[in-house]
Design a protein that fits this description.
Blueprint (H helix, E strand, L loop, with lengths): L1 H24 L6 E7 L2 E7 L2 H17 L10 E2 L2 H35 L5 E4 L8 H23 L4 H5 L2 E5 L9 H16 L1 H6 L8 H6 L1 E5 L1
Antiparallel strand pairs: 1-2, 2-4, 3-6, 5-6
Helix pairs in contact: 1-3, 2-3, 3-4, 4-6
């Protein structure tokens, strides 16, 4: 049973890596919507693909399955910094890629409605009224990023990256519990403080390996 779980996690990790390669070296030049203004001109481009959309739906589905799933801890120990960092990189990419693929689809659909021609990618050097969608996208992306990390804390579950690398946030008694919104926000804030101050996080740890921000929030990350 454990081997099967490891294989599933490995398959998901390979899928995430594939999405990264597809985004930067695939046949489509861009995934998402982009606006660039300079010298009195505005350049607008957007793109996605069927593969990117399916991959983002798969990522969201996996997230929905694991973010509220309670973990049965077997001999937990404080997670290493590298494991936390790699899990965060995976999670950040999952959000960025999923939002890019779906927002790109929204942009190309709006452009198809305006022009009457559907294309997976478009680029133009002028702005139109429907480009205000980019502003909505910015706020939606920020909201999705916060919600992605916040909801697992409020349900005692995991993000996709945490699930892949078998780590979870627990209280000082070693239990993964559902946190109230106010507590989850403080824990998330402490986590991001640690990410923007990696040197301080590495230097200020106790004998068990817990970081300063773990101790400040009263919760830590363990592997199992």
């Amino acid at each position: 049973m454990r081997l099967a779980g490891m294989l599933v996690r490995l398959a998901v990790l390979l899928g995430v890596l594939f999405s990264f390669g597809w985004a930067f070296w695939g046949p489509y030049r861009e995934i998402g919507m982009f606006m660039e203004t300079g010298d009195g001109a505005t350049k607008v481009s957007a793109g996605t693909s069927l593969v990117a959309i399916l991959a983002s739906i798969a990522m969201i589905t996996i997230y929905c399955l694991v973010h509220g799933h309670r973990v049965e801890l077997m001999e937990p120990r404080v997670a290493s910094i590298w494991r936390r960092a790699v899990a965060f990189v995976v999670d950040f990419w999952v959000v960025v890629f999923s939002m890019g693929a779906l927002s790109g689809y929204g942009a190309v659909m709006l452009e198809a409605h305006r022009t009457g021609v559907f294309r997976w990618y478009f680029e133009r050097d002028y702005a139109v009224a429907s480009d205000s969608f980019a502003v909505v996208l910015i706020f939606a992306s920020l909201t999705a990023l916060v919600a992605y990390f916040l909801l697992p804390l409020m349900k005692g579950g995991q993000t996709v990256g945490e699930w892949i690398f078998r780590i979870v946030t627990v209280n000082l008694d070693g239990y993964a519990i559902a946190l109230p919104f106010s507590v989850a926000i403080r824990r998330l804030y402490a986590t991001f403080r640690g990410l923007v101050s990696p040197v301080k996080m590495l230097r200020r740890r106790d004998e068990q390996g817990r970081t300063l921000y773990d101790l400040e929030s009263g919760y830590t990350v363990v592997s199992y």
